Amino acid sequence: VNLTGSVSMVDAEVLESRPVQNVSQALQGVVPGLNFSVNSGGGTLDNEMNFNIRGAGTIGDGSGSKPLVLIDGIEGNMNTVNPNDIESVSVLKDAAASSIYGSRASFGVILIKTKGGKAGKTNVSYSGNVRFTDALQIPEMMDSYQFAQYFNAAAANAGQSPVFSADVMQRIQDYQAGKITTVSTPNSQNKWEMYSGANANTDWFAEVYRNWAPSHEHNLSVSGGTEKLTYRVSGSFLDQNGLIRHGSDNFQRYTLDAKITAQLAKWVTLNYTSKWTREDYDRPTYMTGLFFHNIARRWPTCPVYDDNGHLTEGMELTQMEEGGVQTQQKNYYTQQMGLRFEPIKDWTINIDGNMRTHTNNQHWAVLPVYAYDANNQPYAISWDGGASYSPGASRISESRYTEDYFTTNIYTDYQKTINDHFFKVMVGFNAELTRTDNLYGQGDKIISPEVPTINQTTSEQKVGGGKAENSVAGFFGRINYNYKDRYMVELNGRYDGSSRFIGDQRWGFFPSVSAGWNIAREEFFGSLSDIFSTLKVRGSWGQLGNTDTNDAWYPFYQTMPVGTANGAWLVNGVKPNLAGLPSIVSSLKTWETVETWDVGLDWSLLNNRLTGSFDYFTRYTYDMIGPAPELPSVLGATPPKINNSDMKSYGFELELSWRDRIGDVSYGAKFVLSDARQKITRYPNESRSLDIAHYSGKMLNEIWGYTTVGIAQTQEQMDAHLANNKPSWGSSWSPGDVMYKDLNGDGVVNTGANTVDNPGDRSIIGNSTPRYNFGLTLDAAWKGFDFSVFFQGIGKRDYWLDGPYFWGANGGMWQSAGFKEHWDFWRGENDPLGANLNAYYPRASFDGGKNQQRQSGYLQNAAYIRMKNIQLGYTLPQQWISKAGMSSVRLYISGDNLLTISDITGVFDPETLGGAWGDGKLYPLCKTISVGLNVNF
């Protein structure tokens, strides 16, 4: 492990102690500078969290800043590893610590070491748990009568007719009072009325999501060996049920790992590792479409079942239950073999070869769905409301994806101690090759829905596929010097090549240097050395190249766009195949260069009871892929994008730990805190237009908006305000509307030239970058009992929420929602719904655009603190279990995500603010209660 770079360590206890689905969940909030966030997939069972080290590293087009994850030395997905199989995790954050790993390590490295066998008796371990999950945060809809009042008010304020007639309003009241039991009436086509013609009282979120879904997990391992041969074999099974009530929603994971270390001779050691992970995920096909977008658009007046007991049309539950299933199976096979030679003392030679095969097979079925009229007669309905499928349509799609990854490492090192001077030199070579192969097919009009395969389809059968490969290679070297653990120096160099670039752009040299000074080892430290065992100052500088600069593996090749049977005209009765001109490519496209400066301080004192570290870093990313330069239109083609942008990141990391014992009580606390910000220092936007994504001088994720004065209470107040602050949009400004502030004094509220220098009346009102990421762990143990609690959170973050989940009445009644929070809208003194002058929201209106401009008054504070885990365990006394051949037995009860403190509006979870279809429109995260058992034999 690098002693002079920025490195954080996580041991097995942290990962084993929590019954989580994957490693990402276990690491969130544990390591300063290692940041995890939930993407637009939300809590979907197969979703994986986004993560980075020290914040966003690049904004280059097609570029990525994901850290390199190495599992026992081979690149891989950390979430395919069973957390119970992990021995340790090391997070390398700066260039000096990461440089030896090459071009894919430019934004840090996560090293995962799995457990191996130990010489001695055979050890058998079992751990298992049963867990129950519930939605962490879902909206609560208004009841149907309040909803009808709300929508009628929104229609009236937009100058529209009432949505609900007086007759339907009365039926809604009668149904809620128990005077009638019917939920709808037939229309002229003998189909059940929905929406403004129905009178049920349905909370669609409570209907869609079930409560406390059960799941279970089991882990078993066997390990042992002799002085010359050690082994460990482990397996696990996870059966995770989702929250969706209608249709299948299930995730299963199987793992099987084996590790053998054999001493073939005194100077030769063989290491062999085999890993297999399989993931099966079944969910309704409709869940991959507009399902989460449409939940909020369902009205509480619409019933789940009609008066004859059938699922109703248009509410999508029929599609969820009967409209087909998407099944996905992923397999990860890893084989690793390495030889370690030690021909003479202090000289070792390592040779290893590794391969990983990843397959992803998907089956996607759209089956015919039916509704029933008032006479119980079925009729075909569209699977997606007519967007792509006509009533009764069906489709089967299948895909096969295979990725083969090969890597070899050959390196040698020699170390020597001369008096108190320690030297170590290492040189080596690394090569990697990735090949992908994909095949897909689909067909329409299935013969029998009971056999949903492509060969049962009769129309529009299509196939397609592709192959690709890329490779990287590098030569590396390292020199270490250490004097009495007092002075430490490390020099690294790596010469990397990538097939992503052309010709003389393909290779680059990237150096780094780091040094450390352990002041506690100095003689002048005197008596303080009894207090401090470590007080180390360190610093580093380094450069690394980023090859992940474009989605295309060979961006320098010109490719012709081709299409099969896609011509606009018929030729001899068929559409011809077409081919287009290739796009222009750049021969100058090359590496992004990532340069990092880091200074740090490590300390350990009071007999190692108090330990900690602090780092301050600055990271520069040069030559990011930016927009293409503007060229005359006579070119006749889109110019290629080039390396023309730079960014600066800076921040700090703090880690503090205390561990002690008082009598029979041992206790500890650990606090981590980190912060990172990014500034664009070069970007091709000469006019500094706000219509373009970035500009030089921009702080990444800044939010521009208007300044909110408040909600007008009277027409006189609004008229007086408009005299000097008239918005350039909207009309008929009335009491209950938002008043915006004219910042530049021209009497009009607008966007000006929409540039940084002339933004009109907009200003920077916030920034959505998560700041001050923190984690706090408290634990204690007493006579077999153990207790721990872990908090994670973000100290500062602004967020602009939009759409129906936030505003309620939005852009027309079909894109609006009615949650209980939305009832807090402005109503005047004489409003029939009752006055609400101090409301949070402006007056309800389906013409909400004029009040819903991005503005300071509705900017959200997205900071939060969440109790990620609380756990109580008990280890049975040895005398109770020894006769049964057991060495330890621990029982525990655990809770995840049981408490959250946040100022954000109650509709939203602060961890899942975005969504593929808009803010809040995604699968919710879960809170979990688990009961578990750990046994060792």
Question: Can you describe this structure?
Answer:
This protein is mainly beta. Among the domains are: 7-132, Beta Complex (Ferric Hydroxamate Uptake Protein, Chain A, domain 1), CATH 2.170.130; 221-483, TonB-dependent receptor, beta-barrel domain (Maltoporin, Chain A, Beta Barrel), CATH 2.40.170.20; 707-761, no CATH class. The protein is 8% helix and 46% strand. The chain has eleven helices and 41 strands. The strands form nine sheets. It has a 22-stranded antiparallel barrel. A five-stranded mixed beta sheet has the order 1-6-7-4-5. A two-stranded antiparallel sheet has the order 2-3. Strand 35 and strand 36 (785-796) form a beta hairpin. The longest helix is centred in the N-terminal third of the chain and has 14 residues, at 144-157. The protein is globular, with a radius of gyration of 31 Å. The relative contact order is 0.12.
Protein topology:
Layout: E1 7-11, H1 12-16, H2 23-27, E2 34-37, E3 50-53, E4 68-71, E5 74-75, E6 86-92, H3 95-98, E7 109-114, E8 120-135, H4 144-157, H5 166-176, H6 204-208, E9 213-225, E10 229-241, E11 250-265, E12 268-284, H7 291-295, H8 317-322, E13 325-344, E14 347-366, E15 369-372, E16 378-381, E17 395-418, E18 421-446, E19 457-483, E20 487-498, E21 507-518, E22 532-546, E23 562-563, E24 578-579, E25 592-605, E26 610-626, E27 642-662, E28 665-682, E29 702-705, E30 708-711, H9 715-722, E31 726-727, E32 738-740, E33 748-749, E34 763-767, E35 771-782, E36 785-796, E37 798-799, H10 804-807, E38 860-861, E39 864-875, H11 878-881, E40 888-902, E41 926-936
Parallel strand pairs: 4-7, 31-33
Antiparallel strand pairs: 1-6, 2-3, 4-5, 6-7, 8-9, 8-41, 9-10, 10-11, 11-12, 12-13, 13-14, 14-17, 15-16, 17-18, 18-19, 19-20, 20-21, 21-22, 22-25, 23-24, 25-26, 26-27, 27-28, 28-35, 29-34, 30-32, 35-36, 36-39, 37-38, 39-40, 40-41
